[in-house]
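Weekly sync, protein design subgroup
Attendees: M.S., D.O., the rotation student, P.L. (late)

Item 1: inverse folding check
M.S. brought a backbone from last month's batch and wanted to see whether the design step gives back something sensible before we order anything. D.O. pointed out we never logged the input encoding, so this time it goes straight into the notes. Structure tokens as presented (320 positions):
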């Protein structure tokens, strides 16, 4: 009982953590510059404070991911363990004679470097919190740290695909692995970014132009979310087609039934996002409109966390 629960927990933390890491860099590279173009005066300066909070959230997430990375090896050893050989032999075999071990060690390099990049970004943002946020591409500590964090976040998403079900397919493996990585990145740029806007990106009551700050972030986020949803659905169809032998698997076998529930819940997330897009964005000019948009977006994120829970379960389920 303890082993499966631990396996499930580490997988969910891994998926959620990577989604939020991708969300952090997507906020800085896409949402922040777009919001800056919609803001003026003190509101532009206040974005720097949000940037510091986003970077700090990224740092905290990277620390959690580091613990999850260690837990991942524990879970793998528990599943692989041969009681008739020394523990060191099992660990050595996993690390040096399996592709999974190679990817795991690579993650052990990526995650600490990611933590350093977020730490550097938060320090430079704190130092310049009284000035406007610099746009990506200009020279300076913030831009450099965020670019490094972006590259590392992409590599981390790719590493998940290289150590998951996508690697078990016998044909079209490069396409399926790429689809899996894009699927993870799309989930992060949509749900990860939205979750961060609702928490670390939500302006404090005393921030100048509080309503404008939140509205500008949502409006800047919306086009990216549309692209992310399109990529997420497309890659999801590709991956489902790969992992099922027939459409009837969705109701005739355990793996398919869990996948069907995941699809149903994901449809709920899409519906919540559509409603917020149609109703929330036009109504961001008032306090009541902002509050309603925030509540609907919170439901969207919570439902998405449920999708990640089911994904964590599917990863360790037997495919048809």
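Designed sequence read out in the meeting:
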């Amino acid at each position: 009982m303890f082993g499966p629960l631990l396996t499930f927990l580490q997988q969910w933390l891994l998926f959620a953590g990577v989604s939020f890491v991708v969300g952090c860099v997507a906020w800085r590279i896409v949402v922040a510059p777009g919001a800056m173009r919609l803001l003026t005066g003190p509101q532009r300066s206040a974005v720097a404070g949000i940037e510091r909070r986003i970077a700090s959230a990224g740092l905290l997430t990277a620390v959690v991911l580091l613990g999850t990375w260690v837990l991942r090896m524990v879970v793998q050893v528990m599943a692989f363990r041969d009681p008739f050989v020394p523990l060191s032999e099992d660990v050595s075999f996993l690390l040096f004679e399996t592709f999974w071990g190679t990817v795991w060690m690579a993650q052990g390099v990526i995650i600490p470097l990611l933590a350093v990049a977020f730490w550097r970004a938060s320090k430079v943002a704190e130092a310049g919190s009284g000035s406007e946020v610099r746009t990506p591409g200009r020279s300076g500590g913030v831009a450099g740290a965020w670019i490094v964090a972006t590259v590392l976040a992409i590599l981390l998403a790719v590493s998940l695909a290289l150590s998951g079900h996508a690697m078990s397919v016998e044909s079209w493996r490069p396409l399926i692995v790429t689809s899996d990585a894009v699927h993870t990145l799309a989930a992060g740029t949509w749900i990860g970014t939205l979750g961060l806007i609702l928490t670390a990106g939500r302006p404090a009551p005393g921030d100048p132009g509080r309503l404008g700050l939140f509205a500008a972030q949502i409006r800047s986020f919306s086009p990216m979310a549309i692209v992310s949803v399109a990529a997420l659905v497309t890659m999801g169809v590709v991956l489902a087609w790969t992992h099922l032998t027939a459409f009837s698997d969705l109701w005739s076998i355990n793996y398919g039934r869990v996948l069907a529930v995941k699809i149903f819940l994901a449809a709920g997330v899409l519906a919540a996002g559509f409603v917020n897009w149609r109703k929330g964005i036009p109504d961001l000019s008032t306090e009541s409109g902002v509050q309603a948009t925030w509540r609907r977006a919170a439901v969207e994120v919570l439902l998405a966390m449920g999708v990640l829970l089911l994904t964590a379960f599917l990863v360790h389920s037997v495919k048809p």
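Discussion: The radius of gyration is 21 Å. Residues 2-315 form one domain.
Action: P.L. to compare against the previous round before Friday.
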